[in-house]
């Protein structure tokens, strides 16, 4: 077999046989990485790759020749004991080598969560106070049916997983699994299914469900009217006192229901049901009375406030009267009449109040004074004066603030406007 090579000058040389290639490699003319192409092909490979492939072929041929020279010995049969597995043992063996252990865990955990939810629902329905027993029985019956279906679904899912594992382990039918010491006879998949069907747990499940139902319902079925009365009095002690609000309401409800729905008293729990209803009615009436009291109180407060406001508007004084006796009017609201106009005058106690107050000037027959009002409250008044194009007549509820009066070194008459009417009252 001949080969072409690529020299250092990128020229193709050859063909060379394998011996010539080895001599060139030994002399250093080529290296292990020199590109080599087998004669008759177009694929270039490194010299090292060509040599490794030839060495592998030579070793394989040498091994075949060596095996052909040696005589073949007849295999001796090995005597191994036969072990027969039962269905349970075979299932345990399959599960120990299962490829679906995580899936089994998911099935069991999901079934456990559903079991817990169903049991909690059954306990809730069994202990819930109702006027009729039939809805309770129906709810628990549905829950038990769902419980049985869940158990059946879990068993079916696990059976399918067992069959899948059996198929993967090549044990379908009456087959054997061999190892170095034993021959193990395994049952068929059909027998596995029959084994699950004959499981005692599956047979006793309906009986267990029936016993659970009876144990949960027996207290409710055995309950009497006297028991319900005791429970109602224990919950509402005032029910035993004649003349108490809940006792009176309870008797009123008894009379009302006897006329409208006599079948209501067939349920042994009717005393407790009526006691709860009476307590709810009393609470609703108390809440309504409290709301009414709050409303009456708010209306009275508003009336007092309105009366006080009207009294203030009747407390009319002149500018001259207040200006000549400011100390007697400090922090006392008074009503003044006159014509008001906008102003830019800020002095005395209001010299630094321009950012927070608007300034106005009031003219009357007795004289004039300056008024101030908070910007947020005075915006509408200022707008009316500006739109009128001049002064605006009206009545003004004002006060001489003590804090502003004491802060001023010049005792001019400066009013703070509390409220106003655009026309004289």
Describe this entry's structure for a reader.
With 425 residues, the protein is of the alpha+beta class. It has four domains: 65 residues, GYF domain (Dna Ligase, domain 1, 2-Layer Sandwich); 139 residues, no CATH class; 59 residues, no CATH class; 103 residues, OB fold (Dihydrolipoamide Acetyltransferase, E2P). Helices cover 56% and strands 17% of the residues. The chain has 14 helices and twelve strands. It has a five-stranded mixed beta barrel with strand order 8-9-10-12-11. Strands 2-1-3-4 form a four-stranded antiparallel beta sheet. Strand 1 and strand 2 form a beta hairpin. Helix 5 runs antiparallel to helix 6 and helix 9 packs across helix 10. The longest helix is centred in the C-terminal third of the chain and has 45 residues. The chain is flat and about 145 Å long. It starts with a strand and ends with a strand. About 4% of the residues have low confidence.
Compile the SSE list and pairings:
Layout: E1 2-6, E2 12-17, H1 18-27, E3 35-38, E4 44-46, H2 47-69, E5 81-84, H3 87-96, H4 101-127, H5 134-168, E6 176-178, E7 182-185, H6 189-197, H7 200-222, H8 225-235, H9 245-260, H10 270-314, H11 319-323, H12 326-329, E8 334-343, E9 357-364, E10 367-374, H13 375-388, E11 392-399, H14 402-407, E12 414-421
Parallel strand pairs: 5-7, 10-12
Antiparallel strand pairs: 1-2, 1-3, 3-4, 6-7, 8-9, 8-11, 9-10, 11-12
Helix pairs in contact: 4-5, 5-6, 5-7, 8-10, 9-10
């Amino acid at each position: 077999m001949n080969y072409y090579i690529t020299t250092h000058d990128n020229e193709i040389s050859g063909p060379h046989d394998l011996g010539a290639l080895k001599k060139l490699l030994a002399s250093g003319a080529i290296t292990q990485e020199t590109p080599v192409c087998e004669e008759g092909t177009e694929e270039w490979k490194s010299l090292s790759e060509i040599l490794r492939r030839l060495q592998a072929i030579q070793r394989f041929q040498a091994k075949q020749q060596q095996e052909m020279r040696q005589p073949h010995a007849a295999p001796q049969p090995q005597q191994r004991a036969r072990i027969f597995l039962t269905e349970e043992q075979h299932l345990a063996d399959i599960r120990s080598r299962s490829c679906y252990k995580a899936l089994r865990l998911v099935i069991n955990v999901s079934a456990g969560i559903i079991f817990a939810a169903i049991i909690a629902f059954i306990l809730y329905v069994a202990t819930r106070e109702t006027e009729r027993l039939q809805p309770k029985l129906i709810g628990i019956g549905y829950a038990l049916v769902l419980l049985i279906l869940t158990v059946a679904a879990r068993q079916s899912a696990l059976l399918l997983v067992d069959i899948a594992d059996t198929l993967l382990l090549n044990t379908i039918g009456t087959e054997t699994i061999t190892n170095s010491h034993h021959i193990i006879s395994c049952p068929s998949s059909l027998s596995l299914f029959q084994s699950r069907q004959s499981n005692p747990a599956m047979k006793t499940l309906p009986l267990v469900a029936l016993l659970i139902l009876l144990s949960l319902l027996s207290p409710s079925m055995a309950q009497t009217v006297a028991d319900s009365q005791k429970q109602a009095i224990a919950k509402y002690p005032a029910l035993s006192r004649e003349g108490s609000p809940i006792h009176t309401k309870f008797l009123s409800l008894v009379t009302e229901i006897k006329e409208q729905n006599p079948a209501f008293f067939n349920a042994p729990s009717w005393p407790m049901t009526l006691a709860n209803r009476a307590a709810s009615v009393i609470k609703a009436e108390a809440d309504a009375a409290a709301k009414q009291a709050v409303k009456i109180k708010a209306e009275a407060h508003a009336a007092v406030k309105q009366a006080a406001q009207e009294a203030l508007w009747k407390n009319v004084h002149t500018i001259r009267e207040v200006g000549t006796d400011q100390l007697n009017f400090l922090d006392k609201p008074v009503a003044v009449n006159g014509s008001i106009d906008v102003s830019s005058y800020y002095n005395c106690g209001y010299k630094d109040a321009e950012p927070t107050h608007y300034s106005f000037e009031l003219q009357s027959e007795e004289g004039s004074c300056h008024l101030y009002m908070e910007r947020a409250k005075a915006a509408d008044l200022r707008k009316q004066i500006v739109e009128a194009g001049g002064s605006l007549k009206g009545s003004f509820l004002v006060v001489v603030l003590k804090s502003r009066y004491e802060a001023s070194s010049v005792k001019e008459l400066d009013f703070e406007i509390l409220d106003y009417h655009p026309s004289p009252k």
